[in-house]
Amino acid sequence: MKKQNTSGTINYLPTLSGTIDYPLTNDYMFRSVMQSNKNVLKELLCSLLHLNSNDIHSVEILNPIELGKTIEDKDFYLDIKILMNNNTVINLEMQLHNKYNWSDRSLIYLCRLFDNLNSGDDYKGTKPAFQIGILNFSPFPEHPEFYATYKLMNQKSYYKYSDKFTIHVLDLTQIHLAADEDKNSGLDNWAKLFKAKTWEDFQMISADNKNMQEAGETLYILSKEEQIRYQCEAREDYRRTWNTVKSQFEEYQSTIAELEATIARLQAELQQK
C-alpha cells in the first residue's frame, strides 16, 4: 500500500482488519499520533475539556520529541506539554500502570506547569494550567468515576478559589459510568477508541467521526515506521516487566498476610495455654 503523510488524506480504515499491533494505549504510540496530527489532538482536547471545535484556535506542543529516537530510560514519561490558544498550558499523558502515586505526581506536574511566569511578569499574567491524565486504572477505587475534574475550592461553601489550576482524570476502566455530558462531547467514544484492540472495532467506533478516522489513519501510518515500532515494542516490554514485578509483589504481600495471621493465631493459642 502506498505510504502517505499523517494528515489523513487517504482513508485506510475500510481496508484494514485484524489486531492493532500497537493501540493508542501504548504511551509511545499515543505520543506519536498526537504529535503528528494536530487535528486529532485538537478534537481530543475539545472532548476532554467539553469545548466546541471553534473554541480551540491553535495547539502547539511545547516539548516535541524526535519520533523513533531511542528512549534510554525505560521509566521515561511521555507526557505532552501543550499551549492552547496561546493562553492555556496543558499537560496530557497516557498512563497504563498504577504505581500508587498518581495524586502526588499529578499535583507536582500541575504545579510545575502553573509556574509559567517569566522574570518581571505580573502574577495576573499566569496562564491557566490543566493536568489531564488518561489512566487505565482507578486512582481512587473507593470513588470510581469515568471523568473527574478537580479544582481548588472552599471546603465549606465550595466556592472556587481559582479556575486556573485544574486536574482532569479520564478512567478508561469506568466507561460504563460516563455521564451525559461526557457522552455529548464524545469522550466515551474516545475512551473506547483508545482501548480498541482490532481494526474492525476501531472502524466501528470511529464510523461517524472524521477526526477519529484520521487518528486511525495516522496510527496505521506510524505503525509502519520501523523506528517507531521499535520504541512501541520497548514500551510494551517495559509494561510486561512492570506487570510481572507487580504480580510478584502482590503474591509476596498475600504470603506475608497469611504468615501474620498464622503468627497471631499461634500467639493467641499460646496465651490461652
Low-pLDDT runs of 5+ residues are 1-9
The profile of the biggest β sheet is: 6 strands, mixed
List the total number of helices. 8
* End-to-end C-alpha gap: 81 Å
Strand order of the largest sheet: 1-2-3-4-6-5
Shape descriptor reads: globular
Give the % helix. Answer: 40-55%
SSE succession: HHEEEHEEEHHHHH
Radius of gyration: 22 Å
Mean pLDDT: 87
Oligomeric description of these chains: single chain
How would you classify the helix and strand content by structural class? alpha/beta
Please state roughly what percent of the residues sit in beta strands, choosing from under 5%, 5-15%, 15-25%, 25-35%, 35-45% or over 45%: 5-15%
3D structure, described in words:
There is one protein chain. This protein is of the alpha/beta class and 273 residues long. The chain is 43% helix and 13% strand. It has a 6-stranded mixed sheet with strand order 1-2-3-4-6-5, with helices on both faces. It is globular. It starts with 26 loop residues before the first helix and ends with a helix. The model is unreliable at 1-9 (pLDDT under 50).
In brief:
The chain has 273 residues and is of the alpha/beta class. It is built from eight helices and six strands.
Give the tags.
six-stranded mixed β-sheet; single chain; disordered N terminus; alpha/beta
What is the topological layout?
Layout: H1 27-36, H2 38-48, E1 59-61, E2 80-84, E3 88-95, H3 102-114, E4 129-135, E5 147-151, E6 165-171, H4 180-184, H5 187-195, H6 199-206, H7 210-223, H8 226-272
Parallel strand pairs: 3-4, 4-6
Antiparallel strand pairs: 1-2, 2-3, 5-6
Helix pairs in contact: 1-7, 1-8, 5-6, 6-7
